[in-house]
Structure formats: structure tokens, C-alpha cells
Description:
Layout: H1 2-24, H2 28-40, H3 52-69, H4 73-78, H5 80-105, H6 111-121, H7 126-133, H8 140-170, H9 175-204, H10 210-230, H11 235-249, H12 256-291, H13 294-325, H14 347-355, H15 362-369, H16 384-413, H17 420-439, H18 446-464, H19 477-496, H20 502-517
Helix pairs in contact: 1-2, 2-12, 2-16, 3-10, 3-11, 3-12, 3-15, 5-6, 5-8, 5-13, 6-8, 6-16, 7-8, 7-16, 8-11, 9-10, 9-11, 10-11, 12-15, 12-16, 13-14, 13-16, 15-16, 17-18, 19-20
Amino acid sequence: MFVFHWIVGVLVGAVLLAALARRLRAPYPAFLALGGVGLAFLPGMPSLSLDPELALALFLAPVLMDAGYSTSLRDLVRNARPIAGLAVGAVAATTAAVAAVALWLVPDMPLAAAIVLGAVVAPPDAVAALSVLGHVSLPHRLATILRGESLLNDAASLLIYRLGVAAAVTGHFSVSEVAPAFAIGVVGSLVAGPLAALVYLRILRRVEEPVSVIVLQFAAAFGLWIAAEAMELSGVLTVVSFAITVARRAPGQTSPRLRVISNAVWETAIFVLNVLAFVLIGEQIGPILSRMTPEQEFAYASVAGAVVVTVILVRIAWVLPASAVRRVGFGSGSVHPDDLRPTRDLGLGAGFAVSWSGMRGLVTIATALALPEGGPEGREFPYRDLIVLTAFCVVIGTLVVQGLTLRPILARLGLEDSDPVGHEVGRARAEAYGAAVDALKGDESEAADALRREFHAALAQAEAHEEGLAPEGLPTDEPRRRAIHAARDRLLALRRNGRIGDDAYFVLEQELDWAELNATPRAEA
Length: 525
């Protein structure tokens, strides 16, 4: 019973921390990380453990599925050069630098273990970055680069991570043996993901119940990851390519009701997974600290501090020179004309914004937790305590130092663009309204006539706009909300005075909910 109460308390505390983060317009993982620090020192913490084999699948598969589904393939292709530079080059440079620092400070540390430490702390986290970007006005292209990096850098870091773990456990590693398998794995993943998506979409056509579809979505995320790893493919690339393929093909066969429910469920799941990750790593920090001698405390603290500084400085050193010489895509090269009109997102300002957006989070925690713990049937990974403690410090350090300062820094830099997404939305909305009017031709009913007048009014506003952008809402949106609000008040009064029961009220409430969803969502929603 105590564990149940403890879990409830942790979830409530996480919700309160997330609310505080929203109020301060800061990344909520930063506050969860601070909460994890508190849990590490709480007495009477229940013993929680997770099979290392399941850690990566549990934490990474759904996060990558969710991020991949909302990723623009067109924007990834347009910005392939800077994304590749960060997702592969920056990860490799960070891994090498961290391994060198670790070996310098801990000469007895095996090279493979030092490389694993570098791979654990190398990839920035998608959730942390996006939670900050949701509160700042960042040029669309820079936001696209950061999203693409956080989506694809896991593949590079996990490859290095797995090779390092295998070398540390077996004591054997050969590039000539690994390279062919790696190449086949990458190609196989990029083929397997889309093929699995096509099969999944055929199944989806026969399932209409939202609960069943959402269960299938999670089953696909976990099942694909496990199957890919079993076939020695890349779980990251398989899941991401699957999600991107589904996102391109599924909207035409997915109902609006399902999309609304599914988005809410996935957002909740990602939040709970972040909470669970910080709880699990916080639960491990206490025992690690209790096993350390005073000499180890100083040595481990020195390593952790040095690695935090290293990951921040290496990213800055990687990005800023490229921004200055405009060779890795942060300048004017490889930019689509619609993405950058008169704008200030070029040069060192943009480079510093990208270099300071390197918060670590869920991926670092998941890979640290996935290290073999040892036991009666296995040997613990060398320097596991040091790696887990350092990973936790890197997450705390980057989330707090960079996460809490990123918004004011971006505001100070004043980076702006011409809102290419807004222009695309406005032009596409006008075309969509035109198609709606054409679809009503020949229908002389009063309802069709009312709809025609509504869309014609919106099209008239688009024609009057200097760039032909249609307005965000339809003319009837506000009257519709006002009328539905009055209808809700009347239903509540009918239920209070006993003229209708709760069952009837809930049926009518759902009808009004869907009627209100017909209105264009308010900007603040």
C-alpha cells in the first residue's frame, strides 16, 4: 500500500512541477530532474528496478514514435546537411571528447567504458528541446534543425553505445567485422520501417474503435523496436521511418475524433515516461552515493563536473565555427526561398542559439539505466556507478543551466523570421476554402447556402490580404461558441432541477463538445 501511495505522490508532484515549469515558461524536464535529485535523498524510498534489456524499448520507442509522427519529411530533406552535422558529427565529437576527459581523470577506466560514457551523454533530448521551443519565437528553420537533430542523433549515439557495451563485456572489437553488419542494419532499418508501416495501415483500415487503435499504436512502437533489435537492425531508424511513413499516409483514413483522443493519450504517455525515468535514476543515485568512499566522492564529482562542462563546450565549438563560415548549413546555403525571407536567423546568433539548445534528458537516462547491473548470472558493467552518476549530473546540469536560460537568451538575440509556416497555412487555408465552395455547387439547400456565405466571407478576407492569406477562423466561430455556451448552461440547469438525468446529460454534453470542436481552435489552445 505504501508503494501505491508513493507512486500517487510522485505523479501529483510531477504534475505540480510541470505546472510550475509552464508558468515560468521553462522545460518541464528540468523541474523533473530537480525532483529526481530530491527523491535521491529521501529516506524510505521504495526499491524500484527495471530490466536493462527493457529500458531502451520502454523509454525510447514511444518517444521516437511520437516525435517521428510529427516530423516533416520535406523539412528534414531540405535541412539534411546541418541535421546530419549535429546528429552524427556533434555526437561523435562529444563522445570522443568525453571519453578523453574520462580517461584523463580515471586512468584505470577501460577505453570501452569511457566510450560508452561519451555515447550516453552525447545526444540532446527531443522532449527537453521542444518544451523550450514551445515557449519561444525561434525561426522555423532553426526549430526544424533542432527537431531533426534530436530525432536522429539517437541512432548515432546508440550505435556507439552498443559497440562500446559489447566491447566492454566481451573484451573484443573489430571494425572490419562490425562495418558490414552496420551498413546492412542501416539499410535494413530504412526498408523495414516503411514496409511495416504499409502493413500497419492495412490493419488500421479495419479498426475503428479509438481505444483499439491507440493500443495498436503502442504495440507497433514497442513491437517494432523489439523486432528490429532481434534482427540486429537499428531500433531508432526503424521506428522513426515507420512513424514518418504512417504520418504521411494515415491522415486520410483517420477520423478527427481518433486524432484528438490519440494526441492526448500520447502526450500523457510521454510525460509519464519522463517521470518514471527520473524516478528510476533518482532511486539509483542514493545507493550509489552510499557505496562511495570520501575519496570516490571527490573523484566522481570531478568527473561529473568535467563531463558537464565538456558536453556544453564541445557543442559550442562544433556549431559556432560552422555558423561563422556557413559551411554546415546554418547560413544561407541549402535554404529554401520560402524559409528565409528578410530574416536575422543567419550567422553567429543562430549558431549560438543552436549550440545552447543541447539539453540532455530521457535518452541519456534510458541508456544509463540500460547498462548491465550484474548479479548472480552476470558481471556488472565496469564503472557503472560512475557512468550512471555522471549521466544524471549531465542531465541536471544541462537542463538547469541551459534549459532555464535558453528562453531569455533567445529573446536577447532577437532571432526572427517571416513565419514561413504561417504563410503556408494561410495560403493552404484559402485553397481549402475554395475547394469547399466548389463542393457545394449545385446544392441549393438553406444549409448549403449558409456554408457558402461563410466560406465566401473567409475567401473575401483572403483576397483582401496582401499575400492572399485566409483568416485563422471562420466568421461563425465566435457566434457558435457563444451559442454552445448558452446551450451548456441550459443543460446544466436541466440536470440540477432534475428534469434530465446524468445519462441524458452526458449524451448531450458529448454532442455539444463535438459541435464546439467544429469551430477553429483558439490560438491559445
